[in-house]
Structure formats: structure tokens, C-alpha cells
Amino acid sequence: MLETENLTIRFGGHAAVDGVTCAFQPGTLTSIVGPNGAGKTTYFNLISGQLPASAGKVKLNGHDITGLAAPRRTRLGLGRAFQLTNLFPNLSALENVRLAVQVKSGKALDLFSRVSTHRELTDRAREHLAAVSLSDRADTVAATLPHGDQRKLEVAILLALEPDIFMFDEPTAGMSIDDVPTVLDIIAAIKKRGDKTILLVEHKMDVVRSLSDRIVVLHQGKLVADGKPAEVINSDIVREAYLGGAADA
To answer: Secondary structure of the chain in the HEC alphabet?
Structure first.
């Protein structure tokens, strides 16, 4: 469904992502791990269109989407949750999700729209808020929500967009212990459906072990390991990467 071919981005003389070739199949959850500065979030940014590639390609269902902007990639089915929250801060939680529902539905709302259309979109937005345990925060302005609730709200927006590919960049970062299971249960439920492709950047190895079908390891911008969780986690090259030693691809 999704693949990168020799995907590269350079900042000056530094290759933050260096020739990464990788394919991701429907019904699988792939965790992308590596030490700080390995290029994980930058790789996500290249896939989702937040950054332009210096070289290489991103393909979706066999079609080259490398030249497409992020909004176009979203409409084609790439859904991205960011490491830092990406919300409309002055709108309520419900309004944030309702906008996503509206975008997915393709229905424009104006003064002359049917009341039933407004109600339908609002009801669907409330369902997504309920899925992330934010029903009681529906009318709260997004900027005033605690950080953990903002992260959950972003997941609700992602659910509302109904993408074919879910990209989660450290979805539990900054969350309280009580909030973490809600998001992990949602990711597990998406995986259980078996028809979505999930990419997960995550530092918590217990989360990686429990959710992943496969682990991809980046180190200094290069792909250095790719395989089943048990094999990759116990490999010498991963230990070297995490301990800061020289990893030889």
C-alpha cells in the first residue's frame, strides 16, 4: 500500500534521512524505532508531505505521490498524528472533530445547509470524541485542554478522517499513566480490523513489543534493521544503535 524508495532529505551536507527503502502492507502495524536524532520523525514528515524529499520517492498504491502537498496526501488516505499537537486552538474539541468529519464527508456547510446535515456531522463527531474518552470535554476550547486530552483529541480527528494509513508519532508522549491505555486501545482496535496500515514511532519498548507485527530501526538516517519484533529487539545492531555505538548497516 505504501512504500518509500531511496527516500532522502539533506539539510546542508547532512542527510537526516538517507536512502530509506521500505514497504508497508495493509493489515500490519510497523513500529519505527531508533535513538534520538535517528530520523524517525523526519521520515514521517517526508511520507506525509510536511517536508520535500531531496531524492527518492514515496508511493501510495503504486502511484508516485512524492510531488504532492500534505493536504492532497491526506485526501488520498494518509492520516498523520503529530509528535506535537496540531489543533485549531480557539475551537472547541467538538468543533475540531466536526471539521474533520465534514472534510471526510465532502459536505460544505453554510447558512442554507440542511439542519439534518449539521446534526449528522455533529453526531459522528461526538462518536469519535467518545472513542477517546472526551465526551465530557466536547465544549472545551482545545487550547485549554490538558496536554493528554489534546493528544487524545488529535487521535479523534485522525479517526474522523478515516484514512487508509494511520501514522502515529509518539502518540502517548506527555500523557498521564491513566490516559495512555485509551490511545493504545484505539490503536489496537484499528489494527484488529485488519484493513488498515499503521505506522508507529514510539520510544516505549513495551508498547512496541505489544503492538507491532514488525519493527524498522533507523540510525543516523539509515535503515539498519527490519524484521519481527523479537528478532530486531535482540539484534546486536539495535543494541549498538541504542547504546550510541557505530551501527554498520
So the answer is: CEEEEEEEEEECCEEEEEEEEEEECCCCEEEEECCCCCCHHHHHHHHHCCCCCCEEEEEECCEECCCCCHHHHHHCCEEEECCCCCCCCCCEHHHHHHHHHHHHHCCCCCCCCCHHHHHHHHHHHHHHHHHCCCHHHCCCEHHHCCHHHHHHHHHHHHHHHCCCEEEEECCCCCCCCCCHHHHHHHHHHHHHHCCCEEEEECCCHHHHHHHCCEEEEEECCEEEEEECHHHHHCCHHHHHHHHCCCCCC
Query: What's the pLDDT at 108?
Result: 57
- Residue-level pLDDT at 85: 62
| pLDDT value, residue 173 | 82
pLDDT at residue 116, rounded to an integer = 54
Output the pTM of the full model: 0.85
Domains, the chain, in order of start with CATH, read 1-75+192-249 (3.40.50.300), 78-162 (3.40.50.300)
pLDDT of residue 247: 43
Residues in the chain predicted with pLDDT less than 70, given as ranges, are 82-85, 107-117, 241-249
